[in-house]
Amino acid sequence: MADIPTSHPRRASLLSRQRLVDAAKLGLLADSALIAHGRGEAFDYLLNERTCDSARTAIREVAARLQAAEHPVISINGNTAVLAGKSLIRVAAILGCPIEVNIYYRTPERIENLLVLLKNQRQEISEEIAPKKFSGNWKSKVEAVKILGAISDGRILGLEGPRSLCSADGIGSADVILVPLEDGDRCEALIALGKQVLVIDLNPLSRTARQATVTIVDEVSRASSLLFSYIVEEKSNPTDWDNDVVLKDALEVMAQSVKRI
Ligand code: ATP
Ligand code: MG
């Protein structure tokens, strides 16, 4: 990793790849995780690896909806934990909401490995200097973030098998779920249960992106760190959201980058 010059145009992308390769070796990811990431990278290339204006608007909306929620929860899979776990733990600390490890290809070993990773990240963040604009005891706020997923005592109605499992105190009782990199089937099932589903997905054409309540078409680590800065800096109210507008705008940004050639 240290060999990539700071001026390399793909530096951030290569570092993310390396992080995922290392995590795969440690048993944190499903076999298909690197393929899923590669598909995301292709869309990010078309977005010029930058957060577009409509994605910023979507991140603000997600911040507002999480702040207005009664029982918000952040659902984290392997790729999200590796690329954006720390930012999302900071977000959870400010909101006072739980994080739930919930993965598509569920094995007890991977759940356990991800729980350990997130608990280590929580420990590191609790020792950081409190963010600017945060008032209160940062250490105790961070330490209070519950990391759920070890016990699957809830069910997502409409799904079958291991994919229907969740934590009753997390996704099971949430009204608003931030679930970066969700799968289309699960997104649909959660929406059918009347929950607000807020997603981060680089593909504006995926079923997840099209079915979610709010879609952030952006890379998960960029979007999560911006989400944190909005949540710590301002409190805003949800708007009358038209999700198709951000999906069309992201496609337009991608089309423009094709036209430039
Ligand atoms: P769906 O199930 O919603 O129809 P899919 O089956 O095409 O979508 P999945 O395999 O479920 O896709 O998930 C992979 C998708 O996750 C990629 O196509 C991409 O859009 C998204 N993705 C992957 N890595 C990232 C990332 N780092 N940031 C944001 N999105 C990502
Ligand atoms: Mg899918």
Write out key terms for the chains shown:
10% strand, 261 residues, binds adenosine-5'-triphosphate, 10 helices, Rossmann fold, 8 strands, single chain, six-stranded parallel beta sheet, alpha/beta, two-stranded antiparallel ribbon, binds magnesium ion
Give a summary of the structure in a few sentences.
The chain has helices at 11-25, 33-46, 53-68, 78-95, 108-126, 138-143, 184-192, 207-211, 220-233, 243-259; strands spanning 72-76, 99-101, 147-148, 154-155, 165-166, 176-178, 196-200, 214-216. The chain is of the alpha/beta class. The model has no long low-confidence stretch (mean pLDDT 95).
Any overview of this molecule?
Strands 3-2-1-6-7-8 form a six-stranded parallel sheet, sandwiched between helices. It has 261 residues and is an alpha/beta fold. The protein contains ten helices and eight strands. The chain has one domain (53-259): Phosphopantoate/pantothenate synthetase (Rossmann fold), CATH 3.40.50. Strand 7 (196-200), helix 8 and strand 8 (214-216) form a beta-alpha-beta unit. The mean pLDDT is 95. Helix 3 crosses helix 9 (220-233) and helix 4 packs parallel to helix 9. Magnesium ion (MG) is lined by residues 183-184.
